Amino acid sequence: MVSMRACGGTVQQVHSQDSAWSWFVCLSATFADGLSLSLSNCFAIMLPVLIQEFNETRENAAWVGSIAYSMSYFCAPLSAWCCVRFGCRRTAIVGTLTCAVSLIISSFAPGLLMMYFIYGALFGIGGGFIHTSGLLTTTKYFYKRRSLATGIVAAGASIGTLIGPVYQALIDGVGWRNSYRIIGALFSIACILVWVSYDPKVKDGQEDRTVSCEQGSQRRSGSCACPSLDCAVWRIPEYTVVLIAATVEAVGVYVPLAHLVKHCREIGVSAQKSSTLFIYIGITSFAGKLVSGRLCDSPRISTLYVHQISALIIGASVLMIRLASDYTGFAIFAACYGCGNGMFITTMYLLFLNTVEPRLRPSALAYGEMVNAVSIAIGSPIAGLLADKMGSYIVSFYFSGGIVLFGASIPLLLCFRRKKNVVSDRELIEFKQGLKDADFIERETVL
What we know:
Layout: E1 2-5, E2 11-16, H1 20-41, H2 43-54, H3 58-74, H4 76-86, H5 88-106, H6 112-141, H7 146-154, H8 156-161, H9 164-197, E3 201-204, E4 209-212, H10 237-253, H11 255-267, H12 271-275, H13 277-297, H14 303-320, H15 327-354, H16 361-390, H17 394-409, H18 425-434, H19 439-442
Parallel strand pairs: 2-3
Antiparallel strand pairs: 1-2, 3-4
Helix pairs in contact: 1-6, 1-7, 1-9, 2-3, 2-11, 3-6, 3-16, 4-5, 4-6, 5-6, 5-9, 6-7, 10-14, 10-15, 10-16, 10-17, 11-16, 13-15, 14-15, 14-17, 15-16, 16-17
């Protein structure tokens, strides 16, 4: 930490990049992001509780988690703009407080309609604010260890999934309403952490200058930059085909995260044992992200092929889940699904970046997240509707696995197009290395 004298004569503390304080920032962002994503990733634990509490169908209850999960993606451009306009610290504080308030209000909900708006929409937006501000702040505080630090923040989603058994024990012990209030209180801790750690003043050790996390994204003229979306990305066939494929796949990819526990309980596996399946999903998902990231670093390996393999793993796992009749079978499914899920998420975002030229990458990522949010929102309710109509999840999982496999086949359309002007994976890595000070692009290097 170094000191600098402001114009008014007061001494301000300026933090150095890659310092001990930088790691405090990284851990604070990981805690806040992991806390918000843990509820979305473990919503399958909450689904049976809501069905019983409000005497609702699987379809109606599934909308609660789907709206929350999809809103965190859909509001990505809004949260990025807020970080630019108001600063990462303010955006993170608003995000944590929004999550806390939404959980506390939801704990008094008399029905699902209120939860659609308060938990689904409001909590989802708050989670999106936390995620974006955490990544942008972390990139400001690191230079030499930037990739490692942003990777740790990204791992918050996988780490958060590991608390599934704790979440189940909390619901069994004090009920879901009190559980929401307790988790809401934890968000107040996250709020304090981001308020203290997201100090806007950090010294750029590479150029020996001070940048501000609050104003570092403003233009020199004093006006605030606002990320715009360029429709030119839709004229790139490779990007369009990849986005269509990922959007179709997303309808079925996230279904197990919402319905796995309910299905296990119908088969005869206890709720407590079912919740431990998220430990396997979290561990293998984290491993899948690491493995796919390393594979895609190689110029000899196609990111598209790795993505298709991940979709095949997910689709086959979901189709074969009907063969699981005990805890061991479901544990095997969870391990396979988690590995495929981690690979799927990593390669999907790399493809969004990989199929367009550098100036279009922010727009490609924003469009990708917004369009995928629609698929995430409708996938679980459709699976719940099929389960309600058929009396079991067999048809639902057939539908989910089948649509993932169908989406994996869509990129085969590119075989009929002559390949030209496609940015290689190696060029992508070099591009991201050269733009470490670009906030909006840097947000995606973690993926």
